[in-house]
Amino acid sequence: MKYWNGTEVTEFYLWGFGGQRQLQPALFTVFLVIYTTSMVGNTGMILLIHTDSRLQTPMYFFLQHLAFVDICYTSAITPKMLQNFVVDDKSVTFGGCLVQLLVYAIFATSDCYILAAMAVDRYVAIWFNLTFTVSVVIFSYICILAAILKMPSAAGRKKTFSTCASHLTAVTIFYGTLSYMYLQPPSEQAQENMKVASVFYGIVIPMLNPLIYSLRNKEVKEAVKMIGKKFFTLGQNC
């Protein structure tokens, strides 16, 4: 019979920003506000697209699913992080850590594919008006820019580019942060930078996406105004 000399791993300790104990109340407040804004913004985007018939197009179909995926993958890590800011026991079970990692990885990967599908959708839309991976996004936007530059009207080029500006902003932030995380040379400072970048990637970006698509999108702003008028009318009738 063979005997193995080893210790079974049953839990991990998530230190995160644990070294800055005096900043933990402030960090808790900041990340709670970000998480709440992200949940409200993405949930609102889903409900808005679902209720407004003018937004029943392929682009908004993907945007609705992007909002759902953002809710899922930020919720995989943020509640536990918030908990660690207010409790002394920062441990997580091996099974809990594994589930958290799998859920986060699945939905973060889904985010990449949805962004790629949205890029292809924008390219197809622009191409016919004229006549799952990072490479798909880059290739699609090269084709989009080439198609826009071929348009004879400056006003037409501006209008067409504005329809892609929101998605291009979201893609740049998403993959820019991801590239920053993985292209840094290994060092002690790089580890601290990775913490900040991973927080931005996993918590801040899901909050920014609904803001980017709502603030730069005329159709979404008009839908928000329409729903606002309906609520105002109902309030007056009551």
Automatic annotation (TrEMBL):
Q: Name one Pfam family in it.
A: 7tm_4
Q: Which UniProt keywords apply?
A: Cell membrane, G-protein coupled receptor, Membrane, Olfaction, Receptor, Sensory transduction, Transducer, Transmembrane, Transmembrane helix
Q: Which InterPro entries match?
A: GPCR_Rhodpsn (IPR000276), GPCR_Rhodpsn_7TM (IPR017452), Olfact_rcpt (IPR000725)
Q: Where is the signal peptide?
A: none
Where it mainly occurs, coarsely classed, is: membrane
Q: Indicate the segments forming the G-protein coupled receptors family 1 profile domain, all copies.
A: 41-126
> Where in the cell is the protein located?
Cell membrane
Q: Which GO terms describe its molecular function?
A: G protein-coupled receptor activity; olfactory receptor activity
**Annotated transmembrane regions:** 26-49, 61-82, 94-120, 126-149, 161-183, 195-215
Give Gene Ontology CC terms: plasma membrane
Is the keyword Transmembrane assigned to this protein? yes
UniProt topology in membrane: Multi-pass membrane protein
The family classification in the record reads: Belongs to the G-protein coupled receptor 1 family.
What name does UniProt use for this protein?
A: Olfactory receptor 5AK3
Protein source organism: Octodon degus
Give the source lineage, highest ranks first.
Eukaryota, Metazoa, Chordata, Craniata, Vertebrata
The coding gene here is: LOC101588984
